[in-house]
Amino acid sequence: MKWQIRLLSIIIIVSMVFFVSCGTKSTTEDDNIQVEQKKDEPKKDEVKKDENKTEKKDVVKKDEPKKEEPKKVKKEVEDKVTKDINKAEKKKVGVDIKNIYFEFDSFVLTGDAQDALKKKYDWLTEETDINVEIQGHCDERGTTEYNIALGQKRADRTKEFLINMGIDSSRITTVSFGEEQATKAGTAEEWVKNRRAYFEQK
Q: How far is CA 90 from CA 26, 147, 160, in A?
């Protein structure tokens, strides 16, 4: 009977040790899994830093000014040069006015060009025995045919302005040279100087 009690006690002790050991192992494994999960999870500070970087990039992109198109910038430069040259012509007396300048791909007379032509009108009114030939010119851009037509429009529009002011049409002839006499420098100022109606005294 005693040996049976001892055997039962040993079995109970072994069982308790086994269960305790399993529980400890399970707890340890759970703890290890939690530790690994924490390692894999990004830190809150790092997440915030990444979000801030993304937001800053977006802000920089939004704040960046749009670059102007080269063609638009070039046209603005040419138009400014056109106005400056026409203003210089406007200050001259009628006999000294040789050129009326036009904007790119245009035969419209600017305000300064019209003021210069008014001085030309005053001079022609005084010098009634003088006739003029108005020569239309273009820069080298565009086809030969197109520039011949555009040069003629510039010459005709200049003549029309003087006729409307009172100059007899028989005193004014027109011709177009297109790009034939254009300088080939290829700069904004040279292009402006080529886009002109030139007065040749007859």
A: 100, 26, 19
Strands (E), the chain: 99-101, 132-137, 172-178, 196-201
Domains parsed from the chain with CATH numbers? 70-201 (3.30.1330.60)
23-66 tens-digit pLDDT: 444 444 555 545 455 544 555 555 455 555 555 445 444 444 45
Yes or no: say if 103 and 139 are a contact pair by the CB < 8 Å rule.
Answer: no
* Each residue's pLDDT tens digit, 71-117: 566 667 767 777 677 766 666 656 778 999 999 999 999 999 999 99
d(CA 96, CA 108): 22
- For the record, the structure tokens of 42 come out as 């990004």
Q: Classify the C-alpha dihedral 129-100-162-157 as positive or negative.
A: positive
Q: If you write DSSP's letter for every residue of 43-101 in order, what string do you get?
A: PHHHHHHHHHHHHHHHHHHHHSPPPPPHHHHHHHHHHHHHHHHHHHHHTS-GGG--EEE
